Amino acid sequence: MAAENGQTVFQTFVIEGKEFFDAGKVSTEIKSMLKELGVQPEIVRRVAIAMYEAEMNVVMYAERATVSVQLTPTTIRIIVDDRGPGIADVELAMQEGYSTATPEMRELGFGAGMGLPNIKKNADRFEIESTLGKGTKLEITIWIN
Amino acid sequence: MKCLHACPTQALRVRSGKATLLSDRCIDCGECVRVCPNHAFIPQTSTFSDFSGFKYTIALPSPVFYSQFGKDVRPSAILSALKTIGFDDAYDVACASESVSIAIQEYLDSKSTPRPLISPFCPTIVRLIQVRYPNLLDNLIPIESPMEIAAREVKRLKMHELGLQEHEIGAIYLAPCPSKMIALKNPPRKKHSFLDGVIPISEIYPNLIRALARADLTDGKPEIRGLGLGWPIVGGQVASLKAEDAIAIAGLTDVMRVFDEIENGKLKDVQYIECHSCPTACVGGSLTVENPYIARGRVLRMVEKHGSEPCQDREKIRELYQKNFFSLVGTISPSPVHPLDEDISRGIQKMHRRHQIYDMLPKIDCGACGAPTCLTFAEDVVKGDADADECVFLTMKTFETLSTNLLDVVTKHTRKGRANLGKHTHEA
Fold first, then answer.
1. Contact between A72 and B135 using a beta-carbon 8 Å cutoff
2. A21 touches chain B (CB under 8 A)
3. CB atoms near residue B195 (< 10 Å)
4. B20 inside domain
5. Do B142 and B34 reside in the same domain of the chain?
């Protein structure tokens, strides 16, 4: 972990695809960090939900992803960059209810089709780009008052 | 030093042989009380002399109490015995637990409320939410606890029966854990309690044993029965409800794992979560006497014998619920651990500094410095509460470096050093 200047915290994490065992631990760590800094509970909640959805998407579909967290007194920016199948139609994927979850994933309670829409709903800025056969990159920005 | 690692929220520090409690981190779980070999942690308790001001005293034992004696000792005998050791009367709380379970069921059925709803009866769990999971405060079901319902009810009965005023009647709770004791003295919602004192089960136990050994205690009272008998064990609340998708969790590690899931947006299809700080629920409280697994067995047998016979008129309880008889009054606020700094940018700097210090530490959480983990020690140093020298390993490393430097100096700059270079020496 390095600070760009005294005002920023950078932290990187790795999410392994198909590792369901402790899936969600990156979201929990990021959440702990924000709680320690005294960030408002409502903001912590939004970061938790957005990050958790992003993390679960990686676990379900990708091979692995790096998560970079950039934290300043006013912003938290999370970039989730994965190596995986990519998303064929991003607009379709952003539709509520649309899901490519397999029957096994649905058995586990996933596949409501709300993952990406939920991230967008909880973020102040959300950017997504994807290349079929290569991977997907999300950039989630949330302002801290 | 055993307390250091027993505390689930790293609230203890032991320096110069004295333990200090960081009260903003403490969630009253009582593990420190349980493990300290020197009994250095003493929960504040009431004594019988505190009750001399009351005209009439009533013991309200936690239903855990029924499981603490031999397998043939009936709950009704225990209540009778309590009347012979200094209390004017003893009142069953398990019946109030049945009422509360009916009220919970009404609440679950009638409203669209946050899901999942969380049981508010373990005060440590409530503290955990106030301190670490403030987003879940709205998930706590706003229903009063059985001990309060029982105290209110018995006082009403006795006021009527004996013509006494409420302040002349002392209701004393017999508690299985410090958490319950502290919650009575410092209720999180700052409301008035109907209980006037609290005595640990472990303290009253010897008096009861002697009383039970004495004469026949059957006074023809019907045996204690109802859905509340199972409440002292894990799953007891859930078993008393008709809810689909209700689960029971015990032990803080597992509870926190589930709370993280709820914060992440999961478990929305679960109606009710029964939560306990102690892994064996209330029979495992640190102020009980009996082995919790043996006590659990006794509870199961009591439930088997009398658990399905209701002790309350369900319709009457539902009517009371409609009149808000069970509603919890008052709000409950977050009580977070002090942040690294009031100012987020300074907090970020401290976080960075903490990580720098942590990098230098052996990360074995030995506790020799008086902090439970290397990470908490690093934080204490950043906050100015500890000195980096207090880490034995850091000091050793510094000493090693110093020694190597010193050896370099000696070998380079003295004749003896040069002469002895390469030879094994052990002279002073």
1. no
2. no
3. 24
4. yes
5. no
CB contacts under 8 A, A 61-100 vs B, are 71-73
CB nearest to B265's CB, from A7, A52, A71: A52
- Classify residue B327: in a domain, yes or no: no
8 Å CB contact of A144 and B265: no
What's the pLDDT at A30? 95
List the domain boundaries for chain A: 9-143
Spell out the long-range contacts of B345-350 with Cβ–Cβ below 8 A and sequence spacing 24 or more.
B345/A6, B345/A7, B345/A72, B345/A73, B347/A36, B347/A37, B347/A38, B348/A3, B348/A6, B348/A7, B348/A8, B348/A9, B348/A37, B348/A71, B348/A72, B348/A73, B349/A3, B349/A6, B349/A7, B350/B382, B350/B383
How high is the pLDDT of residue B148?
Answer: 95
pLDDT in tens, A90-130: 998 999 988 988 888 888 778 888 899 999 999 999 999 99
Candidate from A9, A49, A144 with C-beta closest to B264: A49
Contacts of B378 in chain A (CB under 8 A): none
B226 plus B307 within the same structural domain: yes
Q: Report pTM.
A: 0.89
A1: pLDDT strictly greater than 70: no
Instruction: Please report the pLDDT score of residue B428 as a whole number.
Output: 47
Does the pLDDT value for residue B124 go beyond 70?
yes
Q: Is domain A9-143 classified as CATH 3.50.50.60?
A: no
CB contact under 8 A, A1 and B135: no
Q: Which residues in chain A have Cβ-Cβ distances shorter than 8 Å to B340?
A: 36-38
pLDDT, tens digit (0-9, with 9 covering 90-100), for B275-301: 999 999 999 999 999 999 999 999 999
User: Side chain identity at B139, as an amino acid letter?
Assistant: N
